[in-house]
Design goal:
Blueprint (H helix, E strand, L loop, with lengths): L2 E3 L6 E3 L3 E2 L12 H13 L4 E3 L8 H10 L7 E6 L1 E2 L8 E2 L3 H15 L4 E6 L8 H13 L3 E7 L3 H10 L4 E5 L11 H8 L2 E5 L31 H21 L3 H12 L3 E3 L6 H8 L8 H10 L12 H4 L5
Parallel strand pairs: 3-4, 4-5, 5-8, 8-9, 9-10, 10-11, 11-12
Antiparallel strand pairs: 1-2, 6-7
Helix pairs in contact: 1-2, 3-4, 4-5, 5-6, 7-8
C-alpha cells in the first residue's frame, strides 16, 4: 500500500483509508464479526488510516474500532469526529461547536476508543452559532494537552477554513468528493492547496452507487438511509444509472471494477487527496485496495472528465435536513 502525507505538515497515511461508519448503521444489516475482520485485514494490507465518529451508532462505531485496534494502536492513524448531535428523533440532527462540548466529546471518544490520544480530530459539521475561532481554540488546547495530534474540519467552506487555519493549523478537510460530487474542485480544493491542508474524500464511491451494485431502488436494504437520499429517488435514480453504465464501460476496458476505477480516478487527481471508501466486508476492502495499482493515460482522464463533468449527478447530496448542516 502506498502512502501520502496529509497536508503540508500532517502525518503519513495509506493512500486509501477505511471508512468505518457503515459497520454500525446506515447501510443495512451489520455484522460485528465481519467488521472486526475487515479492520484487521485493512491493517494487514497496510491501510492504516481509519475513520469513525461519535455520531455513528451513535457511539458504538468508536467502540467497535477501539476493539479492533486493541494491541495494534501503533499501526493506526486514527481519525474520529465530534459535533453532530442526535436526539430522540432518529432523523433529526443538530450541531454543537461550543468549547466545553469539544472537550467533553474528546474525553468520551478517548474512552470509547480505548486510546490515550486521537491522531486526527475533526469537527464533523461547522456550528453557525459558535465562532469557528472558539471551536478551533478548544481543539488547539487538546493538541497542547497531548490528547489530539492533528485537527481537521468536515464540510467547511473556504472562508471558514481560512479563519480556522489562522487560529491553529488545520491538517485535513474531509468533504464528499467523487465522480458524481465534484463541487470541491471549484473553491475548496484550491483553498486547501493554498493553505497546505490535506483533503480526505468521503463517499468516494457515491455511497455505493458508482459500483453498479444498485440497479433499482429495491436493491437498497430495508432501513438503509440511502432510501431517503435524493440521488437514489425516482427519476434521479434512473438518470444516475446512465453515469454508472459509462463508468462500467470504461472499467471493462481498463480491466478493473467500477469501484476501482472511481477510486483510481480520485487518486490520480493529485497526491494530496486521500479517499476513505467505507465497507464492512473483507472482499470489498480487498477489491478497493487494488485501485492503487491502476494507472491512467492523459486520454483516459480526459475521457472520464468528459463522462462525469461537474454537476452530472441528478439530485442533491443529502435530503433537506442534511443539506442544512453544510457550511456555506
Amino acid at each position: 500500500m502506498q502512502q501520502r502525507r496529509l497536508g503540508r505538515q500532517g502525518p503519513m497515511v495509506s493512500s486509501l483509508g477505511l471508512g468505518c461508519m457503515g459497520m454500525s448503521e446506515f447501510y443495512g444489516p451489520t455484522d460485528e464479526v465481519e467488521s472486526l475482520a475487515t479492520i484487521h485485514r485493512a491493517l494487514d494490507l497496510g491501510i492504516d488510516f481509519l475513520d469513525t465518529a461519535d455520531v455513528y451508532g451513535p457511539y458504538t462505531n468508536e467502540q467497535l474500532v477501539g476493539q479492533a485496534i486493541a494491541g495494534r494502536r501503533d499501526q493506526v492513524v486514527l481519525a474520529t469526529k465530534f459535533g453532530i448531535v442526535r436526539g430522540s428523533d432518529p432523523l433529526a440532527r443538530g450541531v454543537n461547536g461550543r468549547p466545553e462540548y469539544v472537550r467533553a466529546c474528546c474525553e468520551a471518544s478517548l474512552k470509547r476508543l480505548g486510546v490515550d490520544h486521537i491522531d486526527l480530530y475533526y469537527q464533523h459539521r461547522v456550528d453557525p452559532k459558535v465562532p469557528i475561532e472558539d471551536t478551533v481554540g478548544a481543539l488547539a488546547e487538546l493538541v497542547w494537552q497531548g490528547k489530539v495530534r492533528y485537527i481537521g474540519l468536515s464540510e467547511a467552506a473556504p472562508a471558514t477554513l481560512r479563519r480556522a487555519h489562522a487560529v491553529h493549523p488545520i491538517t485535513a478537510l474531509q468533504t464528499e468528493y467523487s465522480l458524481w460530487s465534484r463541487d470541491p474542485e471549484d473553491e475548496v480544493l484550491p483553498t486547501c492547496r493554498e493553505l497546505g491542508i490535506g483533503f480526505v474524500a468521503y463517499s468516494p464511491l457515491g455511497r455505493g452507487f458508482l459500483t453498479g451494485r444498485f440497479q433499482k431502488f429495491d436493491d437498497l436494504p430495508a432501513g438503509d438511509f440511502r432510501r431517503g437520499s435524493p440521488r437514489f429517488q425516482g427519476t434521479n435514480f434512473q438518470k444516475n444509472l446512465d453515469l454508472v453504465r459509462k463508468v462500467q464501460e470504461i472499467a471493462r476496458e481498463k480491466g478493473c471494477t467500477p469501484a476501482q476505477l472511481a477510486l483510481a480516478w480520485l487518486l490520480a487527481r493529485d497526491n494530496d487527496i486521500v479517499p476513505i471508501p467505507g465497507t464492512k466486508q473483507r472482499a470489498r476492502l480487498e477489491e478497493n485496495a487494488q485501485a492503487v495499482g491502476i494507472a491512467f493515460r492523459k486520454s483516459d482522464l480526459a475521457r472520464i472528465d468528459a463522462m462525469a463533468p461537474k454537476g452530472v449527478a441528478a439530485g442533491a447530496r443529502y435530503a433537506e435536513t442534511g443539506m442544512r448542516l453544510l457550511d456555506g
